């Protein structure tokens, strides 16, 4: 059954399609560079994930009732806007978000961290189809997926980068939790977090940040991402994929739930001034 669902319905910022019996695809299209906002995460990404899981679980329950050992397969691909080949996502709409004086206390605990937990424990294999630049919060969202397929950058530049150190923004604990869960090499962690290194696609592959590189446009990246997801879609049949991930990524999940006040450069300087 093929369909197209937009979220939020009145002005879709993401579109969910079901291109095959075992594959769902979420396209992010909040502008060409798909910045993350509160509305985008709460009213688009989260209900889109709910729609995919709801449909997959309906299929899974039907397969179990029919004793169909091959039923209940599933995979989800997440991609940036399909009509361009430049951005997966440019990360948070930071300049507008920080206008809220309660940004640090509210946005991550109430908006972004729930999306992190949702993806880290999603019950079917997830693949980030990185069809262009992948910056900051988008880098974290991609790491939350089980697999990552990236353009090889041969047609235009594409980088993965956590650039907060360059503009003076601290990391929420949830970001560090995801990084520790998905990137095991301390040297790579240092390049990502403390150097804000712009990883080319080849560097990202060598560092283990992505699993495959693809020559071609966005559709080529989607095609490979679907192949990767479908190759492991049978792992969802027994219903244990998401259950296992809850323990596999327990430290990251717990970090995302801790009410830690995020430090910023000004508060850090003020505290240092008082101490010194």
TrEMBL record:
Please provide, in alphabetical order, the Gene Ontology terms of the cellular component aspect for this entry.
Answer: peroxisome
One protein family per Pfam: ECH_1
User: GO molecular function terms here?
Assistant: delta(3)-delta(2)-enoyl-CoA isomerase activity
- List, alphabetically, the CDD domains matched: crotonase-like (cd06558)
Quote the InterPro entries the UniProt record gives: ClpP/crotonase-like_dom_sf, Enoyl-CoA_hyd/isom_CS, Enoyl-CoA_hydra/iso
Single GO BP term? fatty acid beta-oxidation
Query: Which family does the record claim for this protein?
Result: Belongs to the enoyl-CoA hydratase/isomerase family.
Q: What's the name of the protein? A: ClpP/crotonase
Q: Which organism is it from?
A: Daedalea quercina L-15889
